[in-house]
Specification:
The chain is an all-alpha fold. The chain has 3 domains: 88 residues, Transferase(Phosphotransferase) domain 1 (Transferase(Phosphotransferase), domain 1, Orthogonal Bundle); 115 residues; 165 residues. Helices cover 70% and strands 0% of the residues.
Length: 396
Amino acid sequence: TFPEPFGTPAYMAPEMARPGSRVTPATDVYLLAGILYRILTGKTPRTGKSAEEVLRRTFEPIPIDPDLPMADLLLRSLALDPGERPQDVKAFREGITTWLENRGALELSQRASLQLVDLVEKIGAEAPRTEIYNLFGACRFGFEEALRTWPDADLAIAGRREAVEVMARYELDAGDDRAAELLLEMLDEPPPELVERFRNVRATREKARATLSRIQEANDPRTAWGARALIAFTISAIYVATPIGTSLLGLPQGYLREIGIAGTTFTCTMVMFVLLNRRLVRSRLSRVLVVGMAMGPGMVVLMHIGCWLAGMDSQLAGTLELFVYCVIATVATLLAEYRMAPSALGFLVAYYLAMAMEGTTLLWMNLANLVLFINVLIVWLPAGFRNEMPEDVPLL
């Protein structure tokens, strides 16, 4: 220790200007760093109008231009706190030697740093994606080449990390969580805010994908085609069988018979819908067709009740039943399955013929139902015969 300040004010360490302070090897490092500063800049570490002013500035940090050669070494060696400096002259000399041996890596890092600045500007200017990625590739390559030569190069380490973070933000802004994930995997410890943004973007994309998948499934004619075909075949068969069956059984013509036939068909449709509901609701086509199948007999029941109350002849009401089915088939054709048009046309022709030829309603009803049954077979014939459905589509 010294009782009073000593040394050249322009170069002296803070502890040399403080009476009673302990002088250590770190003090020598400070003095050598001052000389190196003079060599690199052509200026003394500190100046002033008088020796007293220069001495007062001894306790102020010396500004270091980051573009100076060995700027990091100078910054550490000229620290006000001796504990933050290289602890002896040997360590200081090793710092200079390391820099000299790795000048090429430093130049690569500095060049890559300039490219990083350009990269940020290009992203801000919304430059083409290929241009941005070309610049990022050059920038990243520069930092990584520098690190191969000098693994401890702080500028290259920080620059590479910043470049990757910049690109990760760029991809997250674009909503591309997959590209952002690849970039974040390059970082040992990604920033928490980027990780959180990545999770949010991924969750949003997966939600959108799930929604799109549901829409595609609902509009894909292959969805639940087996369940749809099963219920269509069954109900079509009931349409054909019930009028014939009641005729063979000798049940008299009348409202009770017609309401019974339509009510039975409606009940069978609803039972099958309940049994196959989980599969049928996945497809918009299935929903529309099943609603149509249920609406047909349901509306017929209501129509017959109204005609009965009005005192209308039951045979005429039976003929009007054909027109109701024609309307239902037409709606199904327009909204769900255009290939059901023959059924709509069949019911319309049967309606006109039954109106024109009294007493033939049952005949034309049976023929129209047969057209419906054949139409359904053609539209939803199993894949084994038509080879339209892929192997991975489940029957139901």
